[in-house]
């Protein structure tokens, strides 16, 4: 095809695609189009929305999968030895946490539509693409109530085909007990190889950000246009934004100062934006479910 024709053909395809995405599946208001952006292995992302232009009674699809650890710093895997990188043949897709010798906890939206044979887990490395060990997954146990449209019950267990020998760079994280109390403002740590939203910050190395737990009711209020947050979710971040998990961090750990796995990176509106904290699956809620399926 001639270059000119090819260009015209391409812009036509782009125009039609934008029309379909904006006109049928989402909303176009005051120039704001909520465009679901496909990302490697994922299906839907809401990227841009003009909050002032939206009436408060419409419920938008949950935004997710749009960025990486923002406002953080490089850490070594020995600082977060429970952290794993979940991979397909294309490389890193999500984070996860070692919870026992043969078990990893991640997000259900990371495993949705995948088969165990296609997944690998890199453990014991500060870099997602090299080092440590690459283990096979024997079985995916995805939460039976996981709901893709509102991201509720975003939990998945990965049964590994080999036992992990614990060392300084690979070990299990403690799960919360039913009676543990986590308070608004408690500082937690989120880690991952996700987007830093800053070209000068490498995403090859594991990064960490410190984020305080965010009041549940206030978080639900902030996200009311996206359906609010459920009891299976916990929010963390600053009202002024700046530090957050982002694209590629999903499935990864949110850990309290006492070393307890409080949350699993799940979703949020963009990354590190003021008034939109990160939303995590609340591990305490899934404690019995984890015990039932893994014995952990
Ligand atoms: C993601 O795509 C993702 N800022 C994770 C967390 C958040 C946004 C996106 C929250 O993995």
Set out the fold topology.
Elements: H1 3-25, E1 28-29, E2 32-33, E3 73-74, E4 83-88, E5 91-100, E6 103-106, H2 108-111, E7 120-123, E8 133-142, E9 156-160, E10 187-192, E11 207-214, H3 216-222, E12 233-236, E13 253-256, E14 261-267, E15 278-282, H4 287-294
Antiparallel strand pairs: 1-2, 3-11, 4-5, 4-7, 5-6, 6-9, 7-8, 8-9, 10-11, 10-13, 11-12, 12-15, 13-14, 14-15
The structure holds 4-(aminomethyl)benzoic acid.
Task: Explain how this protein is built.
- The protein is of the alpha+beta class.
- Helix content is 14%, strand content 27%.
- Strands 10-11-12-15-14-13 form a six-stranded antiparallel beta barrel. It has a six-stranded antiparallel beta barrel with strand order 4-5-6-9-8-7.
- The chain is globular, with a radius of gyration of 19 Å.
- Residues 64-67, 194, 244-250, 265, 267-268, 271, 278 line the site of 4-(aminomethyl)benzoic acid.
- One of its GO terms (molecular function) is serine-type endopeptidase activity.
- It is found in: Secreted.
- It comes from Ceratitis capitata.
């Amino acid at each position: 095809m001639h270059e000119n024709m090819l260009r015209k053909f391409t812009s036509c395809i782009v125009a039609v695609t934008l029309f379909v995405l904006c006109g049928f599946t989402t909303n176009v208001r005051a120039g704001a189009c909520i465009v679901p952006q496909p990302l490697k292995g994922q299906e839907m992302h809401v990227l841009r929305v003009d909050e002032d232009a939206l009436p408060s009674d419409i419920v938008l699809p949950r935004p997710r999968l749009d960025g990486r650890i923002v406002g953080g710093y490089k850490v070594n895997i020995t600082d977060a030895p429970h952290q794993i990188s979940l991979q397909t043949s294309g490389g890193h897709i999500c984070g996860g946490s070692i919870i026992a010798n043969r078990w990893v906890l991640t997000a259900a939206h990371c495993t949705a539509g995948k088969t165990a044979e296609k997944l690998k887990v890199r453990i014991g490395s500060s870099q997602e693409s090299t080092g440590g060990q690459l283990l096979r997954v024997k079985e995916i146990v995805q939460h039976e109530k996981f709901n893709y449209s509102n991201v509720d019950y975003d939990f998945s267990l990965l049964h590994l085909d080999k036992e992990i020998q614990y060392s300084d760079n690979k070990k299990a994280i403690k799960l919360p007990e039913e009676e543990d109390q986590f308070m608004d403002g408690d500082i937690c740590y989120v880690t991952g190889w996700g987007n830093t939203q800053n070209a000068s910050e490498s995403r090859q190395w594991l990064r960490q950000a410190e984020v305080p737990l965010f009041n549940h009711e206030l978080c639900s209020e902030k996200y009311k246009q996206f359906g609010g947050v459920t009891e299976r979710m916990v929010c963390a971040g600053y009202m002024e934004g700046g530090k957050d998990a982002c694209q590629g961090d999903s499935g990864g750990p949110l850990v309290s100062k006492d070393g307890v796995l409080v949350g699993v990176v799940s979703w949020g509106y963009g990354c590190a934006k003021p008034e939109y904290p990160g939303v995590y699956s609340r591990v305490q809620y899934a404690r019995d479910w984890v015990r039932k399926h893994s014995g952990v």
